[in-house]
Amino acid sequence: MREWTGVVAFITGGARGIGLGIARALGRRGVRLALADIDAEALAGAAQELSRVTAVEIYRLDVRDRAGFAAAAQEAEEALGHVDLLFNNAGIVPHAAVEELSYDKWDLALAVNLTGVINGVQTFLPRMIERRRGYVVNTASAAGLVSDPNLLYATAKFAVVGLSESLRLNVAEHGIDVSVLCPGPVDTDIVANTRLLEESVALRDELVPAVATFLKSGPSIDAVGEMVVAGMEARQPWIFTGDEVRPHLAKRMAALLDAL
Predict the structure, then answer these.
(1) Closest by CA position to 93, among listed 7, 170, 186
(2) CATH classification (class only), 8-259
(3) At residue 38, does pLDDT exceed 60?
(4) Is 185 buried (19+), middle (13-18) or exposed (0-12) by CB count in 10 A?
(5) Residues forming beta bridges with residue 10, ordered by sequence position
(6) In percent, how much of the chain has pLDDT > 70?
(7) Which sequence spans correspond to the domains of the chain?
(8) Which residues are catalytic, by number?
(9) Dihedral sign (CA 259, 253, 88, 193)
(10) CA–CA–CA angle 149, 210, 185 (5° rounding)
């Protein structure tokens, strides 16, 4: 990716957190923005801010809603032009102790964090293939490369990494690039936002302070937005926000090779 001015980006979870950081980085470069988010108030605030630097359209969207996705895509392309940059970024941090798991909790966690990505890909990919250009960035997590005890979260994020790696192999011949963003801690309100969406999979109260401290130890959303742009310019398969995962990834890779 070299030219940014006049390009159109569709960003899910684009009104808050990492999505807003990406939107700011792109907006500064003249990219026209279609922001989708479930939070109408946050969307209005993001639009007010970003419209000072570029064209912005907003869409209240639950990424689990395929019909809503299709409608937003159509409206965005009619208003702004063909979408060349897709950021499947919306996500939550669901959590449940293993003895408290249920089908409903699995369904919610996977519907938002995995099927939401699939919905974005399937909505926009045929359009990109037809035009033979595009770039897809899917937000996973460092926990999609090295598992942690959060079973609901790690399962979905590992799947997003695998989806992205396979998609990259499949679409290169169509002139489309794919990267997967694997952030470590980033200073966002994702824990609180998860609780607002669905109390049943929110972190237990006693875990919140430690997780909040961990997240605040990471870079700002604006710094991450710039990292994403730099990763796209370098066409990196994986984009990281820090090297916290390095020793854990090295240990996992060594264990996998030893198992052979």
Answers:
(1) 186
(2) alpha beta
(3) yes
(4) middle
(5) 34, 86
(6) 88
(7) 8-259
(8) 153
(9) positive
(10) 75
